[in-house]
Amino acid sequence: MSDGRTRAEVRLVGHWRQLRAAVILAVFLLLLQWPMRHAVQAGDPTWPLRLDLRSSGPACEVPARLSLMVDLALIYTYLVAAWRVHGYLGLLRPVRRTARRLGLAGAVLVTVAGVVDVAENAVLWQRFGSPAGGGVCPSLQVGLLSPALWVLWTGGVVLAVAAVAVARPNRPGLPGRPGLGRPNWLSRLGRQATKRSDPGAQAREESAEAVRRAGAAAGPDLTRHDRTRQIICCSGGGIRSAAFSLGALQVLNERGEYQRSSTVIGVSGGGYIAAAFHILRRSLTGAPGEKLPYAMGTPELARLRRHTHYMLPSLAVGARAIMSLLYGVVVNLVLIGIALRGIAWVLGWAIAETSVVSGLGTALARTNFGHLPAWYWLAALGPLGIVIALFLAEVMVDRFRVPPNWLRREGRALARILTLPGLLSPALLLGIPLVLAWANNFGHESSGRSGLAEGLAGTASGVAGVAAVSANSAVDSQFGFATLAALGAAFIALARSAWKGMQSLGSDTTGGLRDKVLTWLRTKLVPWAGSALLLMAVLVVLLRWTAGYAASEEWRSRWWVAALCVGALVLIRVFTDATRTSLHPYYRERLAIAYLVGRATSDREAESAYSKPLPYSEYARATDGGPRLVIVASANAADTDFIPPDRGCVPFVFDPDRSGLAGDVTLPTEGLEPTASYELRADHRRRDVTVPGAVAISGAAFSPLTGRNNATTRPMRLLFAVVNARLGVWLPNPYWGTTSPAAALARRCELIAGRRAETGPRGGLVARFVDACAYVASIADKPGAHQLFREAFGRTSLYDRRLYVTDGGHYDNLGLVEALRRRPGRLIVIDASNDLEDTFAAVGSAIASARMDLGVDVRIDLRPLQRKGGERIGRGWARGTATYPEGGTAEILIVKAVLAGNLPWDLETYAAEHPDFPRRSTGDQLYGEFDFEAYRALGETLTREMLDRVQHTNKVPVGDAAAGGGRGPERATVPVVGAFAPPREPAPEDAAPEPTAPAEPAPASATPAAPATPASPATPAAPAGAGTGDPSS
Hints:
By secondary structure, the protein is an alpha+beta fold. The protein has three domains: 2-218; 230-312 and 814-1006, no CATH class; 330-575, no CATH class. It is built from 34 helices and 16 strands. Helix 3 (61-91) packs antiparallel against helix 4 (97-127). The longest helix has 41 residues, at 405-445. 46% of the residues are buried.
């Protein structure tokens, strides 16, 4: 556990970060208002001279109303900050009751101040709707509202600061404690105040800490259900893996191995078919003669063959897919446009107010940096200056003493936050005026230019003019549609090329120099060029809008544009969220329609209604004593506190009992939450954490964040976010618990509903009202534009309230690591990964991850599966062992999608016609009937041969001496666990293995169990030396 932190401490740090960000944003907005409010100083006609804010006259409307628009954002920000202080104090353990009361009182006062502030803004908006009279701007004071506002706001801030100051610290190195959140003198003040007010606080603190530590040390036990039993893993790989795993599961089901397994783990495409088997089994009746799930000739298998084009089965569905894609693109562009419009509005007003650029629209525009007011320079260079000052402060203090922790941590955190603004501020306030002047002069000197140069030149000269009328007409006639069209066409071409480059990753490069060069351009250069082109388009739009606002007073007075922007933000926040604008809902629906069906009769399948949610805690359980369903995904984060560099993710597990984060020992404890509670936390109607939802999340391969693959996809991150190539989902962070306003209201609703019989109809009305409030709170808690920004720029953290969860293959494409975490006695791994031929990279990555994260030593030799001089290998499976750090071993059987042995003739024919078989690109998800059957038949053939060989040899040296053998410890024998069908007549290649070191006799307890039928599953015996545990479910 990193730094000894638990979930409560991680949540505390996350709350502190959110509080700090809100306070910094509020301070920024206050500073942004300052020049605008001073431009309308009440009753002071000398303000332009006194403040060095040059203007032709007291143009009051624009700066006043701009400041009111900024004030709306400020009101929202300081309200959020005030209540975050209250929430932060509620997490401190222990904390003075007085501190919580002070925090609550401060939050209430600030809330009342916000209401008064809105009323004041409404009055001021009407007041500044008419021109100033007598050369003096109207007053910014509104009777008693203004002084009441400042009293309430100041009182609330003072109470909030006092609450944080007297809150007692618990441990050094955390927010609000010595060393991080505040100076030590504040911590000492808090300790002294607590001791004076509550002498027994120390004893209660120590007792609570002991209980919390004991619970953290125990943690959830994922091994109880699976220890010493058998687990089946279905690897990722889209429909390729689904088809191959289907064939393998058919054989395992036929032989009884599926029924006797305790868990089936699915990753990405393997999760498709794992969930399909699981859901279908729930509809079986157990009647005599009932066919096994997805057996040959069953209606569900015939239906699945009809849905191999599940992503785009028809023109109508394809149109819906395009609309889903464009819906997200439009929302993204609207959000970007609103942000650019706000920046251009404020920047254009500042340029016009200070006359930093003069002569726009004439043949010679000039910049005037020598006479800028002080506030302009502070805005341009202030953030960067603060970053430098913080660095120098730490260096100078270090000259005499070790810098205190609060200075090191909080100072560096503030420096990190201000680094990007420190670079953007000079670029916007100093760089854009230079570009506008250059583009204006360049446009007048060079007529008849076309393309991008014409667009850039027209940025200033096309929109700027001496008067508002000329600027308006210039904007309307020369907005630069040719430039934007050229940028858009190039952007689409680059996106298409980048997509092809992604599809070519992992494929052999067998072409000549030209193919290699094109592949390098597509995979290395094109993605960066796409991001650069996107930024160039943003810059062109920003320059044009800024020039328009700088040149035209009428532009700066277009308040209907502000109303449209605010209305659009409200509509986006109310009617959609970061998940609904992605492709996840479409992807989830298509998977549910294709794979999640039941069986109505022996000759007809029963399609599940997509509108019916399938909560994971209920539908992932086994109803017939068979295996439960576990889906593995990846939670993206980049915290070096917990995650190694370049990994970029931790495993995210969907289990019917507990779901959440299950990483290595360095992760904080308590990362798993009861699944039923987590479903309610994610959505009040339990629509997000469902079986189809988990399967779609685990298959979210195309996303801006891709875990261990971030090094490859990082150049395309911004590109994918803007064009809505987003399949991942933002889910609640389990470290933040399952508490939320919606969840609390839902629990309250259940309590009220439970007492409904006693309270009568009135209680029912109250319950419905509370349920409606819980639903509204759940909708308001959905991820928004802030999460979309983090997704686009990779700013995710385990401290955040929400985590971005994507494809399980971004961590381990086999599910092997999660299976070993559960300490089974035997694993059967179905591997249809598209790794390079003969490399078995997915297995190698899983072995290394198991050793690093779990301390499990996996020994398996895959060299017999490598081709010798291009010849076909003799088999498509391997066998090995896993040794647990606490003692005990497990047997591992891996069946790999390769061309091996004597295959059926239809597979030989298909392989001859399709050179990429069985490694078809994962980017191709549209399979025909022969494509799907080829991969299914290959999985069936190789798995059947594996089971026959293991049964026939009874004991096989690990590494298989007949195929080359292992060496050292890998030659130890592993007793067979489980029962198999009677062996077939051995083929010539099944002859006895070459002589090896004599195997030790198997212990009596390792005798193979009797063959079992599907109707009577049996629990396999534990391998020699395996750990013991409760095998019951």
